[in-house]
Automatic annotation (TrEMBL):
Keywords: RNA-binding. It comes from Malus domestica. PROSITE patterns: RRM. This is RRM domain-containing protein. It comes from the Eukaryota.
Length: 94
């Protein structure tokens, strides 16, 4: 996912979307972040597509980016924990 820098950006670019993803799917997934004004979808590769999601205000786009960063940090932390646990042969439950 990509967000243009500078100014009050309200559009995010979502790449590597499944060809099965629809505009409705995108709207449902991102609507928790704010009011969506417009979704534009286009082909990217033979196996994926791109969507540009425009929110009513900058808070919507910022919320998506913030949640993604938090999600990635949690995933990285879990991978590190799993690797350390495997190295010392512990039986922790995640």
């Amino acid at each position: 996912m990509e967000k243009k820098m500078g100014g009050d950006v309200t559009t995010i670019k979502v790449s590597n979307l499944s060809l099965g993803a629809s505009e409705r799917d995108i709207k449902e997934f991102f609507s928790f972040s704010g009011d969506i004004v417009y979704v534009e979808m286009m082909s990217d590769t033979e196996r994926s597509q791109i969507a540009y999601v425009t929110f009513k205000d900058v808070q919507g786009a910022d919320t998506v980016v913030l949640l993604l960063v938090i999600s990635l940090k949690v995933e990285v932390a879990l991978v590190i924990f799993e690797n350390v646990c495997a190295a010392v042969h512990c039986n922790a439950v995640l």
